[in-house]
Amino acid sequence: MVFKKGHKPMGRSLSGHITSEETKERIREKALGRTPWNKGIKHSKETKQKMSENHPDVSGSNNPMYGKKPGLKNQWGVNNPNWKNGIGVYRQRALKRYGYRCCDCGIEVKELLLVHHIDRDRENNKLKNLEVLCRNCHWLKHKGDNLK
Prior knowledge:
Radius of gyration: 26 Å
Number of helices: 4
Strand content: 5-15%
């Protein structure tokens, strides 16, 4: 392999080197007898007291999230615009209209399919704003913009 002046080859772990089963077994055997550095270490009463004094009480009603539900502007159940007789309907409508197939890659595994809002407005549930995507393509739609 020829490298430009000043460039060094990648390490073996990055160049596609495959570790043999024998080597993997030796690594497993070495790791077997080891114990974590902090296993069995107990905090003193003094240390426990300091930790409890410096840690705020966030149990029950002291928790800032107490009584709140995560989600779209706390629009759960009946308050959600997609709720109809106990069922969120936009997903079923999109799957029925476009079929159980990813619009980008064509995968047809029902458990991997999601419904994507094209304009990213989760309240705009018109069929022309929805598309069926697999989890991977959906992630790429949202995060892929940052990768470019």
